[in-house]
Amino acid sequence: MPAIQVLQNQSQTLSIVCNSQTSSVAVTCYKPDGSELTSGSATVDSTLTTVQSQQGESPESVHVTSVSGFVVGRPYIIESQGGPTSILYLSEIRTSGSLLVFDAPPAFDLASGDTIRGARASFVLGSGFTGERDLYYRAEFTVTPSSGDVYKKQTIFHVCRTQFQDPVSLDDVKRVLSFQFPSSASAYQAGQLREMAERASNMVLRQIEASGKLPHLVSSPDAFKDAGLYALRLVLADDNLIPQAGTTEIVEYVQTMQKQMVEECRTAIKAGQWYDKNDDGVVDPRETGAFSTRVLL
After folding, report:
1. What CATH number does the domain containing 37 carry?
2. Pair (137, 264) in one structural domain
3. Who's near 229: CB < 8 A, 6+ residues apart?
4. How far apart (Å, rounded) are the C-alpha atoms in residues 271 and 265?
């Protein structure tokens, strides 16, 4: 996952997904030189409910005792009374019938009495700690589970003057599905569409970084929309959604989309972009025009 872009002099919520029921999470943030920036305790999502039933025809839909406190887009731990767990993202909440709809079915059949609890641990990095623009700050989350060994997770972030906007949105995913794969468009939950958009956007960000550039220093993020749409088609191909699948060779199609995405990224950077290499907000002569963006695959 690309580094989080934190706006200078603004607060930012940093978060991780816990692997299991969690007692506490300690957070220490470090500057790029390794010195400590700040530390504290993360807030563990305490939302908890009990499963009443699981819909047979839509196993990702679960009736629960209460939907209070649940938030669409957040991760949740689904715990079986027999031991297995699944971590899924919430796609939809229907207060009528107390129904939670996740982005995928759990890995096991649910039974009445199973539990669903929050998996998110979040830490607010105050604006007083984001005054200095620099790259590769990090936040270390030390997680103490309710049972089992302590473990750590790390989040990398840059403090930036501007932020790169994702080239692929949920609406873009829905539009492509509706026009190219109309019979499949209604089969996806909002959470699944959101995940597809995020994966496609991250592909573009990684290509920009592979070219030696930092996305937040590129002047016109909209120039990467076409690259994002090619990346989206790669994500859809993972679900076997390929135009004219009966006459198109899958490997050839994926390779073509990959090459087109890389070329669109290269073109977007070269085509009159201003790349603020020294991050001073001033357009210097050497920061405009064509750049070398060759990416080795």
Report:
1. 2.60.40.2550
2. no
3. 168, 172, 176
4. 10
